[in-house]
Write a structure and sequence with these properties.
The protein is α+β, with helices and mostly antiparallel strands and 130 residues long. It has a single domain (2-129), classed as STM4215-like. Helix content is 24%, strand content 51%. The protein has 3 helices and 6 strands. It has helices spanning 2-10, 13-19, 70-84; strands at 23-25, 36-49, 52-67, 87-91, 94-108, 117-129. It has a 6-stranded mixed β-sheet with strand order 1-2-3-6-5-4.
């Protein structure tokens, strides 16, 4: 699921035009340029039917959109939100259905104002095949 979701987002022109390939799982490398996207699985729950595992899972994914300015981070967040929120899609033979749960505007302090990093954090509930 992780590789397919990253590939799907990078295939979206609105996302790739902003970050090229700077989409990472779990953490952004220290020297990575901005803007950048960091994805993280918050929790994953398998779905079961009466006869056992249904091969579906419900996964909460956090998408952190980083930018040098608030505007840059917000633009990336909108580009990530658009193809996911309330959408069904297939990537790498995996079917997905995604819903946005919430969104938070954050910043990370730097030594100077110029070093401050802005972050928009989006949470998605994603149903997918395992």
């Amino acid at each position: 699921m992780e590789e397919a979701l990253r590939a799907f987002l990078l295939a979206q022109s609105g996302v790739s035009s902003l970050i090229t390939d700077r989409a990472y799982w779990n953490m952004r490398p220290q020297a990575a340029s901005l803007p950048a996207l960091v994805l993280q699985v918050i929790d994953r729950t398998p779905a079961y039917a009466m006869d056992g595992n249904s091969a579906l899972a419900e996964t909460r994914v956090q998408a952190d959109c980083y930018g040098l300015t608030y505007s840059q981070a917000k633009t990336l967040a909108r580009a990530v939100r658009t193809p996911l929120d309330g959408k069904r899609f297939t990537q790498s033979s995996i079917r997905f259905e995604a819903f946005r749960l919430d969104e938070r505007d954050l910043s990370e302090a730097g030594t100077t104002e110029a070093e401050r990093v802005h972050r928009i954090s989006l949470d998605f509930q994603i149903w997918h095949q395992e």
